[in-house]
Design goal:
disordered N terminus; five-stranded antiparallel β-sheet; Immunoglobulin-like; 8 helices; single chain
Length: 756
């Protein structure tokens, strides 16, 4: 497999033309710039962002190597979480300085490294992207090429709380069963504030909303505790679940939480609400009319009178040094109903079902879960006695990454994992890795997992100098990928799983962009008078026209047709007309073999492929005046023309059958117009002076206007063109169609399309 990215480089008639990176470099020296995902704020205000205030220009601050204790040290360094994957650092300084330098230290340990430089007066820095979490940050002032001491550090974490107004509150709701077999939750509080719903960090750089804020509800029901999860909008005031049986309804409960996904597609969640429903221990606020679930309610009341069996609270999980996980919880025992023990359950995500996996005795509030193989593992715990089980605890997530064991210390996790498409069924997976952390023995482990089972499998181990991995086959779509670093002893944490979807764009030099068309129109007339000057030809009037649509911009890039992944690439044209005219018919004789009849075709469409080497497509047609062979039709034809254009047909009296010889050629004249200025008649051939010839030619153009009515059918034809790309795996993709384009409406087509 070739992992190298090869360098590539990019490629008219009478014309009527219709026209339809920011790159960031990792700087590994002591002087680094803010990442391409980040902007430094323009001033000391709380709003406004300007990347020019980072060290991106000639006025950037050089990181000093000498410290001066007289330079004021920044104070009150704070980190505020603005969205699930965006933070803001801010600080204060007592006097003006030349600028500031920001350093960071991995939470797992290591050494401080320069991260960003800020210009004078800029005391805020936006950290954009989930990879910015997990570090301690600190800042120093710079003056006269010397630095102050560093400020106290602050930790940026994805577990930080949000500021007031942006906190993810637990939704409040009231459950009811006003309808048969329906459990409804009516929201009554805890809705996300406008600082979340209208957050600017839900918008992309074009102001388009790409993030989302919504509620997630899960209904748990039946003796098997089946779990159904639904998503609903924050504008909704209720959510409901219809059960198949009353038994399921009367043994059910639900929980709600708020989900916030920002512009980086990173999500965060509120805690789940307390369980609410008909199940024992969850019905404290239940609105239950018509005595539905009466038996269960009575039983629950009896349990309540006895004091009830308390449920576990505050469940937690942590990973142990040997890679195993441990779960623990809080519990307040009841003197009236002491617990017999506890049961730990794990959610089977494939079957959406909770399963008992372990148990403990009374008074034991922890359980070793062992090593986890799934990426996302949900656990909960319930107390039980000889009568029943208590309410379940809230569930807790154990996100299974890599290991952190070994003597070499934790390895750096790759970051910036993304995909880019380079063929219809081929993608490049790329990532970033600090070159300073590279070691000869380092390798990258690449794993994949299908959504249906979420079982991670190692698909490749590649050398540490690589930053690209190729993925082929449309069967790989919807697959999750992740990557970690290994040195043979230790393995870093894996990156966050990233799903390969069709939404990832093509690489810029491999993008089948929508073609832009230009139009060429050619129109010609060959008259009987011109033919008269050549005695070897028949006297016919011929009208011809041709239209060509040329791909003038966004032609097929040479990188595409020369790519090793390409099988074939070509253009496809889609023609259509709303009229009865079909130019694929017999365009040599538009008059249907000499009969003045209309064609009865309805509107038609058809496709036509043409090679990328010849990026032009069109059609041409010529019409021969076959009616001129029939004297009756000749008279009718010219009368129609005279009616339309005021043409006098006297001049055609020189061409009658009485002057034809046995072979059908004209041998003389029957009548010569008075103004013909005949110079001589030799062997039946009339010679006229030049002035008459030019007048005759002009008249012949008028006769062409009669036939031009049929040429005008060109004006009704429309075309769309796109690029078709088939790769070596047999998969095909297309550019977007061009907008429908025709020859009507342009200045060079007025004579043809509008000169009626």
């Amino acid at each position: 497999m070739n992992l190298e990215r090869r360098p590539f480089w990019l490629i008219g008639g009478i014309a009527l033309t219709f026209a339809l990176a920011f790159s960031a470099c990792d700087n590994t020296s002591n002087s680094t710039t803010v990442d391409d995902e980040e902007d430094a704020l323009a001033d000391n205000s709380d709003s406004g962002r300007n990347s020019d205030n980072s060290n991106s220009g000639k006025d950037s601050v050089t990181v000093p190597t000498e410290m001066d204790t007289e330079i004021p040290v920044p104070t009150d360094l704070k980190a505020v979480r603005l969205s699930p994957s965006i933070w803001e650092l801010s600080f204060k300084v007592s006097e003006e300085t030349d600028g500031f330098v920001v350093q960071r230290l991995p939470q797992s340990g290591g050494s401080w490294s320069s991260y960003a430089e800020l210009k004078s007066g800029v005391t805020r820095l936006i950290l954009d992207g989930s990879s910015k979490a997990g570090y301690y940050y600190r800042v120093a002032s710079v003056m006269n090429k010397k630095s102050s001491a560093y400020s106290d550090d602050v930790l940026v974490s994805d577990r930080m709380d949000y500021p007031s107004g942006s906190e993810l509150k637990v939704p409040e709701a009231t459950p009811n069963i006003l309808q048969d077999k329906v459990l409804e939750l009516v929201l009554s509080g805890g809705a996300p504030g406008k600082d979340i719903v209208k957050s600017p960090y839900n918008l992309d750089s074009n102001g388009k909303s790409v993030g989302s804020v919504y509620y997630q509800a899960r209904f748990v029901y039946g003796s098997d505790l089946i779990v159904d999860t639904v998503k609903f909008d924050v504008d909704q005031v209720s959510v409901s679940k219809t059960f198949k049986t009353t038994a399921d309804l009367c043994n059910s409960y639900a929980q709600i939480r708020t989900v916030w996904t920002d512009k980086n597609k990173v999500s965060d969640y509120s805690d789940w609400s307390s369980p609410m429903g008909t199940k024992a221990g969850t019905d404290s606020k239940l609105v239950n009319t018509n005595n539905r679930c009466k038996a269960d309610t009575a039983q629950n009341s009896a349990v309540a009178e006895k004091g009830g069996l308390p449920g576990p609270t505050n469940p937690k999980v942590e990973q142990l040094s040997d890679g195993k996980w441990m779960m623990q919880w809080d519990y307040t025992p009841s003197e009236d109903r002491p617990e017999t023990g506890f049961i730990v359950q794990k959610l089977d995500t494939e079957k959406s079902k909770w399963t008992d996996i372990d148990s403990t005795g009374a008074g034991v509030y922890r359980c070793v879960l062992g090593k986890l193989t799934d990426t996302y593992n949900y656990f909960r715990v319930v107390a039980y006695d000889k009568e029943s089980r208590s309410a379940y605890s809230a569930d807790v997530l154990a996100a299974n990454g890599g290991t952190e064991t070994g003597d070499g210390g934790q390895l750096q996790t790759p970051n910036g994992l993304t995909f880019v498409r380079i063929a219809p069924s081929v993608w490049e997976m790329s990532w970033k890795y600090d070159i300073a952390a590279e070691k000869p023995e380092n390798q990258f482990i690449i794993q994949s997992s299908k959504l249906k089972d979420f079982e991670w499998k190692t698909i490749a181990t590649i050398k540490g100098e690589n930053r690209v991995f190729l993925i082929e086959g449309k069967d790989k779509l919807e697959t999750y990928y992740r990557i970690a670093t290994t040195d043979g002893k230790d393995t870093s944490l894996f990156t966050e799983a990233l799903q390969l979807t069709p939404s990832f764009p093509y690489r810029e030099d491999m993008n089948p962009a929508t073609p832009i068309l230009g139009i060429s129109l050619n129109y010609g007339v060959y008259s009987g008078y011109e033919a008269n000057m050549d005695t070897s030809s028949n006297d016919k009037i011929i009208v011809s026209a041709s239209v060509a649509f040329d791909v003038q911009k966004n032609i097929v890039d040479k990188n595409i047709h020369e790519s090793e992944y390409t099988d074939t690439v070509y253009y496809q044209a889609r023609w259509f007309t709303p009229t009865e005219y079909d130019p694929r018919g017999d365009m040599v004789d538009m008059f249907n073999d000499g009969k003045l009849e209309d064609r009865d075709n309805l509107g038609v469409t058809w496709d036509e492929d043409f090679a990328y080497e010849e990026p032009s497509v069109g059609f041409s047609a010529s019409w021969r005046d076959s009616l001129m062979d029939d004297e009756g039709n000749v008279k009718e034809y010219w009368e129609l023309c005279e009616e339309a254009y005021g043409y006098n047909n006297t001049i055609h009296a020189v061409r009658t059958d009485s002057l034809k010889d046995d072979e059908g050629k004209f041998t003389g004249i029957d009548e010569v117009p008075v103004d013909a200025n005949v110079e001589s008649i030799v062997n039946g051939i009339v010679k006229v002076d030049k002035e008459f010839f030019y007048r005759a030619s002009k008249i012949s153009m008028n006769t062409a206007l009669c036939i031009e009515n049929h040429v005008r059918n060109f004006c009704d034809i429309r075309i769309q063109v796109r690029i078709v790309w088939k790769d070596r795996n047999g998969e095909t993709d297309y550019s977007e169609w061009t907008l429908p384009t025709g020859i009507g409406g342009g200045k060079d087509s007025d004579k043809l399309c509008y000169n009626h």
